[in-house]
Amino acid sequence: SLDHESRAVTLSAAPGLSAYWFWRGDPANAYRYGVRMLEGAEDVPLSMQAAAHLSVAFGAQLIGDLAASASSSATAIEMLEQTEAWKLPLWAYNGQGQGGVFFGMPDLTEGMGRQILELCDAHNARLPRGYGLALLGEAEFFGDGDFDAARALIEEAIPLLRELGDEAALNMFALGILAAVAALQLDFETAERAATEASTLGGPGWSATALIVLGTFVLSPRGDVERAEMVVKEGLKRVYERSMEPWVRTGLFSLGRIAAGRGQWEAAARLFGGCRPHLPPWAQHPRWWNVEPVVRAALGEDRYQEIAARAENEPLDDLVSWALEPVQ
């Protein structure tokens, strides 16, 4: 269609394609085809252009181009606010709010959550409130707010997203966050239940991210290290296959913590250095880096810096292939 039909014809499918690529957790195709759809699309209705921009924003966010993601998301919102539609703007606000999670901007996440709730109130829409409540819960959690408040908001969002039937959103925006919050509250039973359910939901990309959440934020802190390594490696393999770089880096970071716990100092240093580029804010919090000083002390600062710096510039293909090898 891109090669043989007008952009007006092709972009009529943009809203559905944007939703499909999100549900599948397929950022590479969302970005690739979103960019192509916008070429020569200046005369296409704004709502169709906006849907293509949302594809670009989603894809760019997960392949590591945060500047392109922010720009496309803002453009989509600007376009949609000139139309009379409300469902697609709601989805755009959600995308911008989730962008706030990736950018480390909880105020942006909170603001978009409130925008969604206002939109739902204006249109008497009950179920989509789940997106807004989830954003408010994420903002509370990632903004180092009250864990009890974050959990309450997420638990209010879960039945709405479940009834809505959006498995990808239920996985990423609700159950995955509940797992992390509950684990930090030492409620490992709830945390494991939430992450395990999330690993069965959404497309293959999103179910893989839930495995990384389960291993990194639930099993490893609980001391179930062998199982943590197994599920993180499976998740890492699958997110790598789908070009979900922030989650690839999170998986490498998680394996670094496991290596440090085993006293595998050089492996830990390589993984900690290799995870740094495009590491998302949720894996940068100091609470998760408490083992790095131990690795530095064991190797000595010069040796640690040598290994980590080399790994930071290592091709991702090589790093992932090595990380997925059986433990020696």
Task: Tell me about this structure.
Helix content is 75%, strand content 0%. The protein has 328 residues and is mainly α. The chain has helices spanning 7-11, 14-24, 27-38, 46-63, 66-80, 87-103, 106-122, 129-142, 147-164, 167-184, 188-198, 204-222, 225-241, 245-261, 265-274, 292-299, 301-312, 316-323. The model has no long low-confidence stretch (mean pLDDT 91). The protein is built from 18 helices and no strands.
**Number of DSSP helical runs:** 18
Task: Please give the number of β-strands.
Answer: 0
Name the average pLDDT.
91
Strand percentage, roughly? under 5%
What structural class is derived from the secondary structure elements? mainly alpha
What keyword list fits this structure?
single chain, mainly alpha, 328 residues
Short account of what is shown:
Helix content is 75%, strand content 0%.
List the helices and strands and how they pair.
Elements (H helix, E strand, L loop, with lengths): L6 H5 L2 H11 L2 H12 L7 H18 L2 H15 L6 H17 L2 H17 L6 H14 L4 H18 L2 H18 L3 H11 L5 H19 L2 H17 L3 H17 L3 H10 L17 H8 L1 H12 L3 H8 L5
